[in-house]
Amino acid sequence: MSITQVSPELEHDIQKVFESDSAALKEFRGNAQQRYQELPEPHFDRSSLENRIYSFIPIEANEPTDWQKAVESLVDLNGEHPLLVFVDDRLVHLGGLENLPNGVTVKTLREAAQEANVVALLGSVVPVNENKWIALQSAFWQNGVYIHAPKNAVMPGVIQVVHLTTQKGRGTFPRNLIVADANSQLSVLDLYVASDEVEEELHIGITEVIAAEGSQVSYGVITNFPKQTTSYWVRRAKAARDSRVDFTVGELGEGYTIGEFGSLLEGEGSSSNGHAVALGTGRAHMDLTAKMVHVAKFSQSDTSARGVMQGRADGVYRGVTHIQKGASGAVGEQSERLLMLSPKSRADAIPMLLIDENDVKCGHAASVGQISEEQLFYLMSRGISEAEAKRMVVWGFLDPVLAALPVDRVRQAVVQILERKMN
Amino acid sequence: MANIPELAIHGLQASVEGKEILRGVNLTVRGGEVHAIMGPNGTGKSTLASSLMGHPKYQVTAGSAMLDGEDLLAMKVDERARKGLFLAMQYPSEVTGVSNANFLRIALNSRRGEGNEVPVLKFHKELQSKMKMLSMDPSFAERYLNEGFSGGEKKRNEILQMAVLQPRIAILDEIDSGLDIDALKIVAQGVNELRGPELGVLIITHYQRILDYVKPDYVHVMMQGRIVRSGGQELAEELEARGYDWIKEELGIVDETVSAGV
């Protein structure tokens, strides 16, 4: 990976992009850029980036055109739920904010980061020096959403955010910060898509969720990038005492993807669930990790994933449940099931239970397989065609996770994309 | 389609993974008839059932099987079913995420053909009444297909499918295995309800027990991959009383299984 060699004019453009930032944010960026230069290339044991072609120039994108159609296929532009649309990191739509409960803030992170106390939260869940790419993203992120719910605020609807990439070569680095104060409740649906012609594009996305005591956050994230894109994302929450953070994750892209989601369960009695669906088509590479770190006593986590690999797709799904010393009474469950639909597809499920405490409960279930001949024979013996029988088995396989998606709109969007991709 | 269903099997030979199991089976089952094929383990009874339905593991190497005058063996599995062949399986598969009712509706509509789909409400009403006949809890309709069903529940579900799909020829492969006497009576009653000139039944079983409740018109004994003796209900009773050894003696068979090379 490299920042494309830049001329002095381009250097000037890059400086200009970040000119209006607050002093605190400029300092944050400068520090991150320093880390980026110092840190080695990150190593992922199942993903090799040597043959990926990508470069980026962190300048402002051209004024986007004709983005409405792509966005409307995912969400209702004039619906009742709050909606923010970013196209190539520019905010192009902000609506449905009229009925926000008292004190709830929904704005761009760039705007929010004019305040030093917001900047102080950046990197508090996903540390800048965690790896080179995170440092890079921290240095050059251009936009994203900032959501803040004050104490006891209950947000009834779902805050929807769409990030659409239409221009290649810049590098898309969206960044979100979600802060739920004590006993507040929030639901966010975050969608990442790109036009089909976008290629050799680098995308690094970070979402940090800070869930204070007794708060509840539901965060849904769907990613669907075309082939020849390289995507690295981290969606992570820090959960305080008795808070609850639920993830629903849909990874449907056809490019090269490395992604991680999960919670740091730092408060006693905090909990986090995750449901993930992955569909690999074409030559997609997916290296996904659900990671739950139990720091506090009586913390609970439960993650389940279902993945389907077709074509020449290659999927690795890691479930990491890490129970640290001192987290007695913790309960961690995970399951991952992967299905390979074609002879050239590959799938690996890697359950990892790292347990440093005695008095805990942990369980895991993992399986990788193909559609069973017996199941097909059974369905066909009732008069159902082979194609329909396969469809039934695959949808049936995904159903337990789809049914558990807590936001209807997420489910509909995922089902639509799945239906299109599985023809 | 002929008015009276007919499955005609001639000289059927079949193998599994290159090993010959069926060595020339001749049998004709017509509408209104109930045939029972009996025999010890490993004599090819279930292979006959699976070969007729078209299980990919079984290769038919010679002979013919005609359903209502059409070549069954030339058809794909689903086509055989749509033509009216039904196999109640010894080990029904479980399918996660597919509800029993949804599965049955799709199967029934496949059998009825495009443009002739059953109205949804009518389907559910009939499904519930058929489930009641088999003493199945209404909640079974919405449960995932066979998932977490007990052995007896699975067998009842097979008969339910037969009742819904109304096949012309039904093969029941060890429908009695693993059933206690109450469950056996329910399953048998379900089969009896469906008996009639529009349905021919082939019951495959180890034991004479089910034949006390579903009276067969014809009884066949299978050994070494062939039907070695045929008779009426009295043959089943004789087998129950005397076992299989006397037949082996009469025919000079030492090992009745197909693994005993011929």
Q: Could you explain the architecture of this structure?
A:
The complex is a heterodimer of chains A (423) and B (262). Chain A has 423 residues and is of the alpha/beta class. Chain A has 2 domains: 1-223, no CATH class; 241-423, no CATH class. Chain A is 21% helix and 38% strand. Chain A contains 9 helices and 19 strands. Chain A has helices at residues 8-17, 23-38, 68-72, 109-112, 116-119, 132-140, 373-380, 386-404, 408-421; strands at residues 83-87, 90-95, 105-108, 145-149, 159-165, 175-180, 185-194, 201-211, 216-224, 229-239, 244-251, 256-265, 271-280, 285-294, 300-309, 314-323, 331-340, 346-355, 361-370. In chain A, the strands form 2 sheets. In chain A, strands 2-1-5-7-9-11-13-15-17-19 form a 10-stranded mixed beta sheet, with helices on one face. Chain A has a 9-stranded mixed beta sheet with strand order 3-4-6-8-10-12-14-16-18. In chain A, a hairpin with a 2-residue loop joins strand 1 (83-87) and strand 2 (90-95). Chain A starts with 7 loop residues before the first helix and ends with a helix. In chain A, 53% of the residues are buried. Chain B is of the alpha/beta class. Chain B has one domain (6-251): P-loop containing nucleotide triphosphate hydrolases (Rossmann fold). Chain B has a 6-stranded mixed beta sheet, sandwiched between helices. In chain B, strands 2-1-4-5 form a 4-stranded antiparallel beta sheet. In chain B, helix 5 (151-165) packs parallel to helix 6. The longest helix of chain B has 15 residues, at 151-165. The radius of gyration of chain B is 18 Å and the shape is globular. Chain A binds chain B through residues 372-375, 377-386, 388-389, 392-393, 395-400, and chain B through 53-57, 76-78, 80-82, 86-87, 89, 92-98, 103-104, 106-107, 110-111, 144-145, 161, 165.
Q: How would you spell out the order of helices and strands of chain B?
A: EEEHEEHEEHHEHEHEEEHH
First and last CA, distance of chain A: 35 Å
Number of strands of chain B: 12
CATH class of chain B: Alpha Beta
- Beta-strand proportion of chain B: 25-35%
Named CATH topology of chain B:
Rossmann fold
The whole-angstrom Rg of chain A is: 21 Å
The assigned structural class of chain B equals alpha/beta
| Tally of helical runs of chain B | 8
Sheet having the most strands of chain A: 10 strands, mixed
For the largest interface in this structure, which chains are involved and how many residues does each contribute? A-B, 24 and 31 residues
Average predicted local confidence, pLDDT of chain A: 91
Strands of chain A, total number: 19
CATH architecture of chain B: 3-Layer(aba) Sandwich
